[in-house]
Every structure is written in structure tokens, then in C-alpha cells.
Amino acid sequence: MKGECLCGSVKFEITEGxxxxxxxxxxxxxxxxGAAANAATFVxxxxxxxxxGESGIRSYKKPSGFRSDFCSVCGSxxxxxxxxxxxVWIPAGLLEETLTSKISVHLHTExxxxxxxxxxxCVRLAGGPESLESLDSML
Length: 139
Fold this sequence. Notes:
By secondary structure, the chain is mainly beta. The protein has one helix spanning about 25-35, and strands at about 1-5, 10-15, 20-25, 40-45, 50, 55-60, 65-70, 80, 85-90, 105. Strands 8-9-4-3-10 form a five-stranded mixed sheet. Strands 1-2-5 form a three-stranded antiparallel sheet, with no helix packed on it. It is globular, with a radius of gyration of 17 Å.
């Protein structure tokens, strides 16, 4: 399995299968991604390899131990070692190949964003906002 950041500067490979994905809904993951939840997985360190761009990775670490690694060119979150666990955290959105894995765990749901819950009135579009007749219908 291959993965890369938004600009393609940071690339990596994984040599083991992705078993499960999780989504973390905590406020730190929301702030690090700008999304309602952070979809990711873990792989063993021995199954992970940087292909390019490792020197362009920057890190931010909170005193609590929360760590966010990102591409210095495009800002995409990128994989990082999970403390001393022997595992590497992998943002699911960076994976290039189709996954058969599904979300199996939702973490920190008690601190999920109040606006996260989907409603029956939610518009679903196969494309982006350009497929609407008017952006006013989204607002």
C-alpha cells in the first residue's frame, strides 16, 4: 500500500494489510485536521517505510504528549511513530489504494463536535458544490 501527502512531497509504503480504521472525535484531532474526526489506522514499524520527503516533515508536540506531524509544503498530516509502542499512526486519507477496511472504532465520542451529527435533511452530492444550481442552497 502506498500513501502520500496532498502535494506529493511526502511518500511512504506499508507492507502489511490494513486491518481496521478508527475515527477520533477529540478536540485535538479536530484542530489538527480541521474535520469532525480524524480517520486513521496503525501499522507495525517494521511494515512502514518512507519513500520520499521525510526531511520536509515538521512536528508539533503538546506537553500532554499529543503529536502532530505534517508536510512543511502543503500542511497535510503525515504518519508518525506512536510513542514507544512499535506502531506508526497512519492518516487514512493519505492512502492511495482502495481499502477494504472499514471504520471499526469511534474514539472520544463524548467530546465530538456539536455540529457533527448528520440530519435527515442533509444534502448528499456525488460531486462538489459546483454541482449545485446555487451555493445558497448549501448555506
